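Self-study notes.
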Amino acid sequence: MLSFGIKDLIDIILVAVMLYYLYRIMKDSGTINIFFGVLAFIVVWVVTSEILEMKMLGTILDKFMSIGLLVLVIIFQDQLKRFLVELGSQKRWKFIKDIFHHKKQNPHEQHHQWILPIVYACMNMAKSKTGALIVIEQNVPLETYEKTGDIINAEINSRLIENIFFKNSPLHDGAMIIAHGKIVSAGCILPVSHDTNIPRSMGLRHRSALGISQATDAVAVVVSEETGNISIAHRGKIITRLSSADLEHKLAALTAKDSE
C-alpha cells in the first residue's frame, strides 16, 4: 500500500520549484523549445522504463539519459552558471541580513540618486543621436564583462556618461556597466543575442542589450544612434521608444524589484 507523507510533499514542491526556475531561465535565454524537448524526452523515458516496463526501449533510453546529462551540461553551461550565481548571490539571501539590521535606507531614495543622472544623460544623447549602451547590474555579478573594458570606478554623473559615449571618445562603441551605485567600467564587450525574432532595424547595441539581459538579470538601456530612440532590455525582452518619464519609471521599477 502506497503511503504519502510530508517528506513526499516537500519532494514534489522542490522539484516543481526547480522546474519552474529552469523554465524561467530557458525562456529568458530564448532556449525554451529545447527545455520542452528535454522535458518531453524525460516523460517518455519514465513512461517506457518505469510504468510500461519496456525492456528494450527502456535500455536504449537509459543509455541516452546517461550520456544526455553530460551533453546538457555542455549545452546549457551558461544557464547553469547563471543559476548557480543567482543561487549563491548575497542579494538573494539579503533578507537574512535584514533580520538583524532594522535600520534601512528607503529603496526609492537609494535608487533615485543614480537613476536621474542616467535619465538626463540618455535624454541629452537622444537629442543629439549619440549611441549609448548602459548596463545596470542586479543580482548576477558582471565582473566577467567589466574586465573586457576599461575600469572607471566613478560616481554616476550625467556629464561623465555623455562624455564617455561622445562619438570621438575611444570608449563610445562599448557598453558602460553600472554596479553598486557607481560607473564601474566602460567600453565593455557583451554577448550578442542571436534571436531570430529581433527586428532588422535593431543594430548591434540592441542585440547586445538583449544578449546581456538573456545571460543575466541585468537591465540594459540603449540609445539608438540612427533614430535617437531610447529602449530598455530586461530578462530577454526589450521595450522601445521610451520617454524620459517612462525610462525613469521603468528603471525604478525593475531595479527595485530585482534588488528586493
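Second protein, same conventions, sequence then structure:
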Amino acid sequence: MKKRLKTSDIILKIVSALVVLLIFFPIFVMIPSIFKAKTEINIYPWHLFSLKPTFDNFRRLAWLSYTSIGVNYFRSLFMTLLVSLTAVVFSLTINMIAAYAFARLKFPFKKIIWMLVLFTMFIPGITILITSIRVVNDLHMTNTFMGLVVPGLVSAYNLFFFRQFFLGIPVDLDEAAMMDGASTWQIFTKIYLPMSVTPMVIIGASIFMGYYNSYIWPNMIITENNSKLTQIMTVISILNADSTYGYGQTVAAAFVAMIPPLIIFVVVQKYIRDGIQLTGVK
C-alpha cells in the first residue's frame, strides 16, 4: 500500500512539474526577447538570450505618444487600472447587496426573480453583444468612462456565489442582532461584510482580471481616435499589428501590462488559498 502511495506521489509531482513547465514556457521565452534589438530577434540561427542586451524596447515604450500609434501607452495602462478597480468596488457592492437580499430578505416574486437571474448564467455574453452596444449607445454612454464600467457590474455568477455563502451563515446571528435593535443594513455591514472578506477578495480578483483583460468590449465602445479611454489590450494589439515597432517592443508592452495583475495575485494569494479550503468545509 505504501509503495503504491509513493508511486502515485511521484506521478503527481511529475504531472505538476509538466503543467508548470507548459504554463511558464511562453513567459520564459518571452522575457529574454524584451532585451533584444529588433535586428537580433529576426537573425538566424535563433538564440534564446541576447548577445547584446538592450533596454531600447522599454525606452521606446516610454516615448510612445499619440503621434506614433494614436494612444499613449502608460496613460492607457493607468486608465485600464482605474476602470478595473472602479468596477471591482461597484460590482462587489451591488452584487453583495443583491445577494444578501435574495438570501435573507422576503419580497414579492422572490423565487421567480431568482430563477430569471440564474437563467442569465446560461446565456453566452457574445450572443447579446450587439444588443448591449445598442443599449449603451441609446443611453449615450459610448466613448465614456461609464460605458466601460457599468455594463459588466452585475453578474449572475457573482450573485449566486455570494448568495450561497450568505446562506451558510447561521440565521441565529441575524435574530440576535435584531433583538439588540440592529437594522437590516446594520446586520449586513456589521455581520455579513466582515465575514465575507475571503469571498470578496476571490470574486474581486476575478472581476479585476475580467475588466483588465477585456478587448472586444472596449474596442466596440471607444470609437474615437486618440481617446484617453483606450484600454491597454487595444494598445498591445496595435503594436502587434504594426511591424514597424517589432516583436521586442510588443513583448515589452505585454510584460509591463502583466505586472499589476501579478502584484495583485501575490497580495491576495492567501485569501485565494483560504477560499479553496473554505469550499471543502461544510
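Instructor comment on the second fold: Residues 2-34 form the longest helix (33 residues).
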